[in-house]
From TrEMBL:
Amidohydrolase-related domain mapped to chain residues: 51-380
A Pfam family matched in the record: Amidohydro_1
Domain of life from the UniProt record: Bacteria
Keyword annotations: Carbohydrate metabolism, Hydrolase, Metal-binding
Protein name: N-acetylglucosamine 6-phosphate deacetylase
Stored Gene3D superfamilies: Metal-dependent hydrolases, Urease, subunit C, domain 1
Family designation: Belongs to the metallo-dependent hydrolases superfamily. NagA family.
Family annotation (NCBIfam families): nagA
Keyword Ligase tagged: no
Length: 385
């Protein structure tokens, strides 16, 4: 069955069609037009709303009571099925520092998860966050399980995941860091600096070795200092780095987000949530890697006050970026999907509205409230008025 949106703002990478039409069938976009096509079996009037490519979250641990580290098909299914409510149609299942056995169990689960018969977001692979990080910048990652970067151990994890690891967060200054970075680059896997106390010079050396990504800017990394700009400074100044931002105005004040965006622009920014299982649930106490996390006033914190991920949605992050920085449609498209699709090598089918791409679409109003989400041509979320 073919579906046609008419009379809708269509946000493309290079322009916005104010009253256009999009036709899709069999999970794929067939046509985009400035005027009605009148070819859909089902025709939907999108007047007053905007159609964006479905959002892509490259850093999410869990949602709606589920966590990737639960290591069950039900957990991955639960995450995939809830994400379209915020407009997310693709994601990387993100692990965390835990015992080798628990990490391998979670990776085995992800590697065997096909997503068949799941009405929801598409899992594009794994973001391995830890255990190859710095104890000085552990944050909510359990210090007892942190390990030095190791090619041998990484290969164990890669095989356990059925070769689905797409991104690895590590501390490049730790012993074995450069060797692992070079190994990841040779395998076509994104190496990211995160949970790291690297100096600016160490960060730049890591980029030369193959690092191309920065995990949750500002958080759990060496900060900007006028005599050592640290990893934050490298993220600002090195055009080879794509940079994650958690825009909830909790992990970083809105002024800090503005400073970062002026350096990064829409060319290098990726909005992420770093969300944990409490997302979409009431305030209370939840588990994160065997640790109690209290969620109150939109904050998720450990007993000692350390931030432990977020309960942020990508639609909320996009709304805040639009409201406070007055971003254009094309900037918002880039930071919610286009940049992630390009970095993950799926830009031929994700991150844009054009013939031949997946019909991953999100219908939003001016405040970025999600009205409908389509995953590969299937309506999986529709807002109830």
């Amino acid at each position: 069955m073919s579906v046609e949106y008419q009379n809708v703002r269509i946000v493309q990478t290079d322009r916005t069609i104010e009253k256009g039409s999009v036709l899709f069938e069999e999970g794929e976009i067939r046509n985009v037009s400035d005027s009605p096509l009148n070819r859909g079996d089902t025709v939907i009037d999108g007047e007053g709303l905007s159609l964006f490519p479905g959002f892509i979250d490259v850093h999410i641990h869990g949602a709606n009571g589920h966590d990737v580290m639960d290591a069950t098909p039900e957990a991955l299914q639960g995450i995939a099925e809830i994400l379209p409510e915020e407009g997310t149609t693709s994601f990387l299942a993100t692990t965390m520092t835990q015992s080798p056995e628990n990490i391998e169990r979670a990776l085995h689960n992800v590697g065997s998860f096909t997503g068949e018969n799941v009405k929801g977001a598409e899992m594009l692979g794994v973001h391995l966050e830890g255990p190859f990080i710095s104890g000085k910048k552990a944050g909510a990652q359990p210090v007892d399980y942190i390990r030095e970067p190791s090619v041998t151990k990484f290969e164990t994890y890669r095989k356990a995941s059925n070769d689905t690891i797409r991104l690895v967060t590590l501390a490049p200054e730790e012993k074995g860091g450069e060797e692992l970075i070079r190994h990841l680059k040779a395998r076509g896997i994104i190496a990211s600096m995160g949970h790291t106390d690297a100096t600016f010079d160490e960060a730049e050396a890591a980029v030369e070795a193959g690092v191309s990504h920065v995990t949750h800017l500002y958080n759990q990394m060496s900060g900007l200092h006028h005599r050592d700009p640290g990893v934050t400074g490298a993220a600002f100044t090195d055009p080879r780095l794509m940079v994650e931002l958690i825009v909830d105005h909790i992990h970083s004040r809105k002024e800090a987000v503005g400073i970062a965006y002026r350096q990064l622009t829409d060319k290098r920014t990726l909005l992420i949530t770093d969300a944990m299982r409490a997302k979409c649930l009431p305030e209370g106490t939840y588990d994160l890697g065997g640790q109690d996390v209290t969620v109150k006033n939109q904050k998720a914190i450990l007993e000692d006050g350390t931030l432990a991920g977020s309960i942020l949605t990508l639609s909320k992050a996009a709304s805040l970026m639009k409201k406070h920085l007055h971003l254009s449609d094309q900037e918002l498209l880039a930071i919610t999907s286009g940049n992630a699709a390009g970095e993950l090598g799926v830009g031929h089918r994700k991150g844009g509205i054009a013939p031949g791409k997946d019909a991953d679409l999100v219908l939003v109003d001016d405040e970025f409230n999600v009205h409908a989400t389509w995953c590969r041509g299937e309506l999986v979320y529709e807002r109830k008025e």
